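User: Predict the complex.
Assistant: Input components as received:
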Amino acid sequence: MNIHEYQAKDILRSYGVAVPGGKVAFSADEAEAIAKEMGGDIFVVKAQIHAGGRGKGGGVKLAKSVAEVRELADQMLGMTLVTHQTGPEGKTVHRVLIAEGVDIARELYLGIVLDRSVSKLVVMASTEGGVEIETVAEETPEKIYKEYIDPQTDMQPFQARRLAFKLGLEGDQIKHATKFILQLYSAFTETDASLMEINPLVVTPAGEVLALDAKIGFDDNALYRHKNIAEMRDTNEEDPLEVRASEHHLNYIKLDGNVGCMVNGAGLAMATMDIIKLAGGMPANFLDVGGGANVETVRNGFEIILSDPNVKAVLVNIFGGIVRCDRVANGIIEAAKSIDLSVPLVVRLEGTNAKEARELLANSDMNFEVASSLEEAAEKVVALI
Amino acid sequence: MSIIVDENSRIVVQGITGKEGSFHAGQMIEYGTKVVAGVTPGKGGSKFQDSVPIYNTVKEAVDATQANVSIVFVPPRFAPDAIYEAADAGVETVVCITEGIPARDMLNVYNYLKSTKTRMIGPNCPGIMSPGKCKVGIMPAFIHEQGTIGVISRSGTLTYEAVHQLTRVGLGQTTCIGIGGDPVIGTRYIDCLELFKDDDETEAVIMIGEIGGTAEEEAAEWIKENFNKPVVAFIAGQTAPPGKRMGHAGAIISGGKGTAAEKMAALRAAGIHVCESPADMGKTVAKVLGK
């Protein structure tokens, strides 16, 4: 799960990580009130969407007065912000962060992520702040410094210090940065984060070390033990169909194609998308209905797939292992009868009792196309679009 | 031969009285697997299907039955504890089927297990099966056949698809291992390949991968240097968009890394036969072996 920058900063603040002052506003009035209370003569108004590259898209602006904060907030709220991460359709801004202006001496990078190849957390720092870390990794990988953390000892101060020295910090900056890094690491493990990025991490002329921006992603599997974080979910940032699917506990991801698909198992679902493309179509979605594939799941799945107006045909691909194909077939028939199935449907059932299942489908009064192999299923469904 | 589990494996089922655990323990027994014990805290002294003794702790089960392989059917929040308990009791292999365990918990488990002799398979996997010998998992037994192909996969039903295709073209399997779809897993491609390398009966290996992480690339590199049996691969998610988690916790393209295209290129560069279509997995193995 992803959250907004202001939420990330609130969490970090609660773990003692140094973050510039700021508050979220949902209206120009609120923005004005926050700026007034904050005081000072320089503010930053930042559009809150779950995508990077906001600055270049016009979603981060400086204001030199409370009146200007109001004006900028008014412009940003409701605007469609397009960045390289939002896609051409962009995202609507519903919230803005009003933050204190900060004097910047240096811009650095700090990130924590799970390194899957060694099964350890890695804390990464770089002198190249304000640039995407992927670009730095590509062009100047020697400018990224890493510390791998043994979960049995957690991050030790010497590791944070080593990063601070490598970043070329000196004097009190070392102390501030070491504390910052260790607090960030605690915040990461205690909240079950899956990613934290502070980009840029800034050093002020006075030697303070602050998180000018903050991005946090969380491990969905651990949200059950962080109710406060789970409540930060902003469904405005998600595709409406994906939100609906998640309410039915369905694993659905919307794509741009025209062939809907419903599959049991994530790997097979991806493989089904792939074979649709190889056959000359384009998948409209990823949908894993899990092991059971009962009537209700299948019905909810159909309803969600068919809510996408681009869908011209649907492919159901179920590999019945423990679950018997004839039962799945009955589920499909019943589900299809209970909804308005407005597009052609190709069903491929393989595994336990597959033959009986195919007969059930063929003999039903529904207009199913039945396929036995993956290849045949993909060819049939693409021919129908 | 086979790897990791065979006809002599003695299985203890952790969570044997739960819905999943009891169903699959029954299926495993039906296949002829030696399920020697079950564990459910508080139900020690009773029996599963009137024959398999149930113990309160894994240690008791191991002491009484010499179980050497454990399979874990325990909900996500209790599964790490179940794995620690299995390792503490000294089982050689613990197969964790459970999906949805927090990554932080698995990081702790993984790094702890390095100081023990216990191998973990999974989590979030269908288990491991050596056809004709034993089944330690939730896979449908009837699609398998004893033979000469090693199967390693991050997926569940896609593995069944591959096994089914192999059996259809007349190629049985030595051992099929579902290594799991999570970012932190106990046994990786390379661990399995090392074992298949020394298994005389395994003629060829099929690797089924998917987007996310770099495990396939690392395996490709290792195969180039160390493995001289034919390898066929398929990578799921050629059409998956970046930044979206495709069902499995580990199936995500992040920061432009972990795409199917990169993995396929790395595998090809290592001399591995990569199928573009999931419909060609069985056929390709047959072709590579000249069968």
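Chain A has a mean pLDDT of 94.
Let me know if you want any component modeled separately.
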